[in-house]
Amino acid sequence: MQISLYRYNPETDSEPYMQNIDLDIPEGQDLMVLDVLHLLKEKDAGISFRRSCREGVCGSDGVNMNGANGLACITPLSSIVKKDRLVLRPLPGLPVIRDLIVDMQPFYQQYEKIKPYLINDTPAPTIERLQTIEDREKLDGLYECILCACCSTACPSFWWNPDKFVGPSGLIQAYRFLIDSRDTATEDRLANLDDPFSVFRCRGIMNCVTVCPKGLNPTRAIGHIRDMLLKRAI
Amino acid sequence: MVASVTNLGKSGVSDWLMQRLSAVILAAYTVFIIGYFLLHPDLTYAQWSGFFSGTCVRIFSLLSLISLGAHAWVGLWTVSTDYIKPTGLRLLFQSATVVAIFVYVVWGIQILWGV
Fold it and tell me: What is the model's pLDDT at position A64?
């Protein structure tokens, strides 16, 4: 198989380039893209990428594979390779540190902005703050986000305004706390989102939904936030 | 909260609502005008002029004209904040847009009431 790999080492390269590498894929196996990256690293130890759990939980190996963002560890070659060719690039829209490793800081800054923790100004109970089964169910499809950044870096609105638009990942997390029955900061959270950029830069193209490796739907969460903002303002 | 002063409504939700409402008004006006053309295949200037001298048509036309201005403001402001990165150039584009919208709206009113 021919691999076209994005290479950039700021210490030696003046600019990034694509390196073509021919790789023998073992017969009769459907390797994951992460396995391919390991095979490449055996050939050239200088090839750099992030990985950790290798089972789609930690979210560290988000890359762009044949044009689509996803987690290398849970993406089988059969699902993305066409004409025996695989193009591997770093997640788009974030500064590249080296090869497939991107600087996640702009992404984390947006996450930080939505205050991704429970805020409750009532006295702490002696036991846990309990939720009804129905209230707990509202968090399903939201809390599972692993912050891999596949969605936000697939979003043109995030590419153009990474410092202003919270992005799909931050917004699905924002809604996770807005809808949490134990959180009492709903008004403050909504007030912080009611500007023309934070939420409303979403144009609903649903790239985030297409690429989310956990099968989540940030566009729907953004729609719910918009409804909450609208109800608050009218 | 991201600061912004050159957008139409000063808040995200007001811009969003303004753009949706204006879109509905423009869609209704488009259907209304196309419907009028279809019902009057042999339209004369006298009929056309009489049509626009009616108060209801004038109000609807003015509403659509203002909606078009609001819609264009929100839309072009969004495009400028996406694609024009140098602040000076962006401000220039946004100012020119607002002036052009103002000119078109006043000009439109003049045409509408001049019939």
Answer: 98
Residues from chain A contacting residue B73 (CB–CB below 8 Å): none
CB contact under 8 A, B12 and A194: yes
Q: What is the pLDDT of residues A20-63, one digit of tens each?
A: 999 999 888 899 999 999 999 999 999 999 999 999 999 999 99
Residue A220: phi and psi, rounded to 5, are -65, -40
CA-to-CA distance for A115 and A185, rounded, in angstroms? Answer: 10
Domain boundaries, chain B: 12-114
Query: Do A112 and A94 belong to one domain?
Result: no
The reply to whether A110 and A221 lie within a common domain is yes
Shortest distance, CA A190 to any CA of chain B (angstroms): 10
Q: What are phi and psi of B100, to 5 degrees?
A: -60, -45
- Whole-model pTM: value is 0.91
Question: CB B13 to CB A164 under 8 A?
Answer: no
ipTM value of the model? 0.85
Residue with tokens 């991107």: A102
**A191 and B1: CB-CB below 8 Å?**
yes
